[in-house]
Amino acid sequence: EIFGLDDILFTPNVLYRNNGFMVAYLANLQYLHIEKPQGYSTDAAQKIAEETSVSSGGEENHTDKTDMEDQPNILVIMNEAFSDLSVYGDFNTTEDYMPFWRSLKKNTVRGNLYVSVKGGNTANTEFEFLTGNTMAFLPTGSVPYQQFLNGAMPSLASQLGKLGYQTAALHPYYSTGWNRDKVYQYLGFDSEYFRDTGDFPDATLLRGWVDDESAFDKLIELYEEKEEGSPLFAFEVTMQNHGGYSKEYEDLTNEIQFSDAGEDLRSVHQVQIEATEKYLTLIKKTDEAFENLIDYFQDEDEKTIILMFGDHQPAEYITNSVLRVLGEDTATRNDTTDKLKTSYEVPFVMWANYDIEEKEVDAISTNYLSGLLMDTAGLEKTGYQSWMEKLQQQYPVVTANFYQGTDGTFQQWSNEKQSGILNDYAILQYNNLVDKKHRIKNFFADISKKALE
What we know:
Helix content is about 40%, strand content about 15%. It has about 450 residues and is of the alpha/beta class. Strand 5 (about 205) and strand 6 form a beta hairpin. The longest helix has about 35 residues, at about 265-300. The model is unreliable at about 55-65 (pLDDT under 50).
C-alpha cells in the first residue's frame, strides 16, 4: 500500500505487469505453502478412509453403482454477491427485494449458508462447493484456483460425469478470471461457456454485465440442446450483482429505497445509502429472473433440481449502510464471533420440479453443500462425502473464519484444527489437494479422462 503496489490476485498477468516480476513473485510466495497436518502420512489418510469404508458397508466410492435411470438434471447457480441483508436485523424498504425467493416452500430445501469470504474472492466459495474442501486449512488470502489447482482434481463435476451426466461450467465474463479456463478442465467439466469466447451472443447487459435473466436463459438453452436420455449438470457463476454499486448507470435506477433512512442519515451517508439501494434493486432483479427460471422448469417432464446460493455478501460499505439504518456501531459490529458470522451468511435454496422432502437448514457451510445436493437428488456419494457426514454432525459449519460446534455456538479458530476429527479432515484434504501422487484411490471423486488429457 505504501508504494502503491497492486495486491489484486484476480488476474495474475496484470499483477506481474503492474508490480514487475520479482515483487509479484515474492508476494505470491506467502500463499504457496500449505502446512502439513499434524500426523500426516499416506497411511494415516488411508486409515481414515478405510474406517469410512467399513462404516458405509465396505464400498469406498458408490458413485458407479447408482441406477442410471431417472436421474434428475442438476442446475447450480452460484450468484454473484447474492445475499439477504435482513440477517443484520429487520429494516423497512419501499418493497420486498426478494419476494419470490421467500415464497418458495413446496419441494424446497433451503437455509443459511456460511462462506469463507466477503466482498470478493468468489472463487474460494466455488472451490469449497465443487471439491468439498475448506479454506480453513489453507493460507489466509490464498486462492486455490490460482495457487493450488494445477492438474486434474476430483470434483462434483467429475463425480457426476462418472454417473453419466453431461457436465458444463458457465461464467458470463472473462474465461481467464481466477484461471477458470484451465481450472474447469482440471475439475472435469465436459464443456465451458464464457462471455469473451462468444458463448453469450444474445445476452442483455445491466451495468455492463450480463444480466441474470440472460445467464439463466443459457441454462435453459443447454437443457434444450442436451443429448436425449443423458442428464445435465450445469454450474453457473453469475455477474449481474458484481460490485460497483456507487457508480451512476443509465440502465439502473433505485427501485428499492430505505424507508428508515431519514434526512439526517442521508445528509452524511447519501452515497453509501444510494449504493445499498442500488444493490437491493439488483437483488430484486435476480429474484425476478429466478422466478422465470423456476416457471420454465415447473412444467417440464424431466426431473430437475435447481440450487442457487450466494458466493458472498457485498463489500462493507453496503452492509454498513444497513447497520447505520439499524442504529448499530459499524466499528464494533464484528467484535464477537456471533456478530462476525453474520457477515459471512448468505441464503441458499434447492428446488425440484418433483416431490422432495421439504427442509429448513439452520446452518451449513459450503464444503457440505454438494453432499446435501447429492442426498436431495437421491444420488450416492463418494467416500469423502460420506465421511464428511460424520464431520458435519460434530461441526455443522467449518469456514476459514470460524466453526460451529455441536452445542450450536460459533467459535473462532485457535488450536482446534490440530485435534480430533478436524485434524482428520485436514489430513484427508492434504492428501486430496497436495499429496496428489498418493491420493487415495476410490475415496474421492474419480478424475475425468478429459482432465487427465
